[in-house]
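seq:
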Amino acid sequence: MDATSRDRDAEGRARNARPRDGLGRPLPYGAPGVERQPEGVTRTPEKTVREAQRLLDAGMPFHAHEVFEDAWKSGPPSERELWRGLAQLAVGLTHAARGNATGGARLLRRGAAALAGFGTARPHGIAVDALIGWAGDLARRVEAGEGERVPGGGARPVDAAGEAPRLLGGGRWDVFRK
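struct:
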């Protein structure tokens, strides 16, 4: 790839073809990467939650964000804030796992605020109240560790798979349930 041309998809739209790592960071051309999530996939809410949870559990929150983004763009208007909030939580976890404490905490809080409108409802079985608690807890812990630097700069990254929330509740996040 030279500096004057752009990567394009089959329809001619600009699309970066560089491989990506599990946290969505671009790798050099030719390097092995992880398979990217296809874009523009319309899934049922249940399939969206199942696929996103699989990716979160695998430590791939950036890819889970892509799944939520598809639901956000293709779902009914009444659910857009739900999917947008979940996408922001996934991106917040992505930033925290990359060592960006400020961006991670900010997006975790922004996602939690988007979900707050759903109160204690469980749209599609999603444990919204538990996720809001998880996001606030992780944002506080990420910020508290912000002063802890790693060689080369940046905050100490969190383990994306180890911090993955349970979208349908259960596990250690039950402590946040009302």
